[in-house]
Amino acid sequence: xxLHELQPAPGSKKSRKRVGRGMASGKGKTSGRGMxxxxxxxxxxxxxxxxxxxxxxxxxxxxxxxxxxxHRIEYKPINVERLQEKFGGSDLQEITPExxxxxxxxxxxxxAVAILGQGELTAPLTxxxxxxxxxxxxxxxxxxxxxxxxxxx
Length: 153
What we know:
Elements: H1 57-60, E1 75-79, H2 80-87, E2 94-95, H3 97-103, E3 112-116, E4 126-129, E5 131-132, H4 134-142, E6 146-149
């Protein structure tokens, strides 16, 4: 096959319908709109909102309540038991969001990391995260580790 032999698959290209071009075309005179009536006029027909006079669906639904806080910070929660599972037996002592990504605990670093206190921790870890619950902070410090709060970027 050569470049000049390329052509679209048969039936894939369809020429547009040219209405109002004489009686012989089959779409002359009224251009396929019928004789008279609302839909024969220019700008005729009803919009997508109109439902035959009944109250439209968008007006029947209740209004959306509340508001969306544009300053909301979304945290990725991690329990101390996950830290114990992954890093309890390792010689790694400093846990940062980058280390959590490498370990497969979180996928991306676009969200802030929050450490929560579910489970037990025995390894003395230095944990760096954006937020800590009170129970997580006490469990990490009871195990001999330290807590460092990272600034939100």
